[in-house]
Amino acid sequence: MQELIDELNYKRKKFGKIFILSILGVLAYFIILTFLLPFIGHEQMVSREPLLFSFFGIALTTYILSKTEFDSWPIYRIMTLVIAALVFYFSLCLHHITSVILLFYIPVVLMIWMLTDLKTAITATLILLIICYFTPNIADYFLITNSVKHTEDDEILHKLQDYIVVIIVTYFSLLTLYFHNEFNRIEIEIQNFQDSKTEIKKSISSSQSQLYEHEEKNEFAKERAEILYQKIISYFNEEHPFKDPDFSITLLAKKLDTNTTYIYKTLAIFTNKSFRDLVNEYRVNHILNAIEKNEHKVFTIEHIYLEAGFLQQSTFNRVFKKITGLTPSQYIESKTAL
């Protein structure tokens, strides 16, 4: 259970790192344009000062937060509001040149969907659509449109910018959707793990012939469970799926053409372990085997535990000590002393 929570936190931090670096990259791109365009005979389309302020503000804030232990989700919500404000500013400056700039709102909506729920995302979408509709009026009211000049000679440049905007929007949309799917996968696995606790207790206390409740009178139930268990063990021994950090009971069920409930109950009967415990046991055994072969003298211990499927050192240390009774360094020292 704790390993799943650690994995979820790791994925969230990884998403935040990639997302913020991507935002800074986009801001850096537009900042460079503000310096480059005057040299090639074009007017800059966006004021440089807000971009510089946003770049260094986000960079500094991210650096400070990286040194603390704040919950990532509230921070991402704040970042989403900041990004929405930047997109609003871009749209005010450039709406009269190209409407493609409004596509930047798509990743904003996807971020809101990932951080909240579908209902909130739909509400945000409606609000942003209203803002898009009234963008020209707002720009005219604040005289923002008039501060940006452009000529017909800029048409090619504007088309190129449109393509670049589409590429950026597509990248951020796919990035957000990918991690949203990853978060959902882990959260579902956590929920399945919690739901399985009650079922595992019932399975342990019941006879093996009651492995599948809807087949409790079927004389072949035990035999089918044994076959499934052998398939699981064979798959682990031959394919080493545990080395994939994203390996889950859902993936195992798909691979063996069964369902997660059968796997949970089968493991409870034949190993008295959860799926996560079994995976961690195989990962630790893989590491122990590497130490026996003196691979720790060639590679770093970090390389070895990452190669075994662990994502974080804290998780690796805790699981390793739980299984062996020793920390990794203590275990290596004990082997060296022999």
Termini separation (Å)? 35 Å
Q: Give the helix/strand class.
A: mainly alpha
Tell the overall outline. Answer: elongated
How much is the radius of gyration in Å?
Answer: 27 Å
Question: What number of domains?
Answer: 3
Overall pLDDT: 79
Q: Number of DSSP helices?
A: 13
**What's the main sheet like?**
none
Please summarize what this structure is.
This protein has 338 residues and is mainly α. Helix content is 73%, strand content 0%.
What can you tell me about this protein's structure?
Residues 207-220 have low confidence and may be disordered. The protein folds into three domains: 2-185, no CATH class; 206-272, no CATH class; 274-338, Homeodomain-like (Arc Repressor Mutant, subunit A), CATH 1.10.10.60. With 338 residues, it is mainly alpha-helical. The chain is elongated, with a radius of gyration of 27 Å. The chain contains 13 helices and no strands. The chain is 73% helix and 0% strand. Helix 3 (72-94) runs antiparallel to helix 4 (105-115) and helix 7 (221-239) packs across helix 9 (260-270). The chain crosses the membrane at residues 18-39, 51-66, 73-91, 97-115, 122-143, 163-180.
